[in-house]
Design brief:
The structure holds 2 protein chains of 2 kinds. Chain A contains 7 helices and 9 strands, in the order βαββαββαβαβααβαβ. By secondary structure, chain A is an alpha+beta fold. The mean pLDDT of chain A is about 95.
Amino acid sequence: MHLGMVIDLKRCVGCQACTITCKSENGTPPEVLFTKVLEQVAGEYPIVKKKFIPVLCNHCEDAPCVRVCPTGATTKREDGIVLVDHQKCIGCRACYVACPYKNRIFLKKGSLKNGYFGKQLTPYEQVKYPKWQEGVVLKCTFCVERVDQGLEPACVQTCPADARIFGDLSNPESKVSRLIRQRGGFQPLSEDNTEPSVYYLE
Amino acid sequence: MPKTMPLVGNEFVSGFRLQTEWATLIAAAFFFGKIGSGLFLMSLFTHSGVGALVGLLIVLIGKGGAHLLYLGRPERFWRGLMKPGTSWVARGFWAMMIMMVSGTLFLILPAGSAGSLVFEVIAGLSAFVVAIYDGFLMNSSPSIPLWNTAMMPVLCLFYSLLGGTTLTLFLIEFGFAQVAIQTVFLSNMEIVLLSTNLIVIGLYLLSMTNATAAAKESLRLLVSGTYALPFYALALGFGLVFTLLMSYFVGTAGGAGVVGLITAADLIGHFFLFYLLLRVGVYKPVLGQLTM
């Protein structure tokens, strides 16, 4: 099995629902975003075109972050999901710099002292924050806890436009494989030979 | 990729993005690693025990200290030794450890003994790796095209040798070290290395003019953008051109004051060159430019 995601750029409306649900699902501290939607604009008024580009960890097949990690904290599961073991990470940020997509986040010291409403953490933040550590690198996990229970990542389930599709890239009959085949799905920065597991459709 | 993509920060806009994580402390670690290992290598060449000891201390305290200050979890630093098979960070850490142990044993054992010779060779090889590994570390990642070039280790090697030569001359001139070769040879070597570094930097920047759009954006920041002034004034002007002119026209004949000035100028230029190369690292946009 090789889990991956297809993002249909024609469907994305830039609502950032995926950004919000990711934060809600993972309970990440302020300024930590595992996924977000970038905007790109072309042309000049009144002839303007806008595109929304959802970005997240691409869970690359040949992930530079796995290669450069000196501790073995960043590993790749058999199903292709790239994870960071926070207990092993030393915060050298070699992975952060090596990721061509800049989809890793370093949790600075003191980040967990303040929540969204100041020093008094909300009950939700009190429940979620203990799983994070300061001084280590974080990233999207494809919602691995949900995937292990047979569920889709939160961003996929939430997307109101059905722009994100999750599935098994190694199965030629899966929806993701068919979409990539039929609509010419392409990988971001394919010239870097990282073999991302996230494909875009235009 | 067209040049018209914007340079963006953390906002939700697609474009070139600056590398921000590796800055002052990593530049300091690279700097101390290069000058310390360069001095150690030059001390092996000139048979200077004091130079070798100072080189080891620069690497241990300067490089090791900067790395420890930078780490998010410094108490787990030992884990950085776990994956030398794929990681240049781990390889550099191993090289530094081996250099420290074998270098110390080389200095402790009686000069000329078999053990001393063996550890001299091991320490020399590991010092060579410490001198160049940050070039490989920067080169090994495809994310930042400015660094993703085989010129990086070459640049590191020449800067390390230059730093080592300058510090050796400084130690001799200030009476801290005695060497087995003539000072005039070291002075000439310094001039050759300064000229070589100017040529290597020129070639490196020239190669970037034909590289990807992200590399060109980095180059623009360095030679005509935000970082142009420190690049021309400190890295090139003070660090190489002024040092070269002073070394060529005055050199060690000018006495300790001139050698001290040359050393300071060389080290300042060295630090700023690599600091600026780190600061102008630019990531490519995730997808290409949107067209109408």
